[in-house]
Amino acid sequence: MNPIHAKRFAETKVMTLLAPPQKVFPLLCPVREYEWVPHWHCKLLHTESGLAHKDCAFTTNLLDLGHEVWTCTRYEPPRSIEYVRFAPLGMITRLTITLGATENGGTRLIWELVFTAISDKGEEALEHLRQGRYEQTMTIIEKALSHYLRTGEMLSQVDNAW
Fold it and tell me: Is pTM beyond 0.85 here?
């Protein structure tokens, strides 16, 4: 059997926020994202608590990847959360977010994303991510989350990255 090497794009983004992990972690939930992520929309498929937990599942219809199915594969409040998502167009994504306290009472978040293309359309989407879409989306996420933690309100002026 010959090994298959699907095209892959992996990136890490580090953010520092002025709120403790106990305040940041609950916002990394598909339901709570309605509070701070502009243009966010998801459909819950399974949740026992009404919020994120291990094995909860939901769908999104994001701008670049279209319909995606997500499941939470790690849930360790307030230290780490991980989602694996599948886009039928041909992309599998693993998102791992690790949180740590900073000396000034804030949070250092490490966002690790691994995108794996499993079709020609997935490879096209992967190339779009490489050409700046990933960085643009992560910049908006950081601004939106920081603004929400500072003001308690959603950032109103933002392009639709989703």
Answer: yes
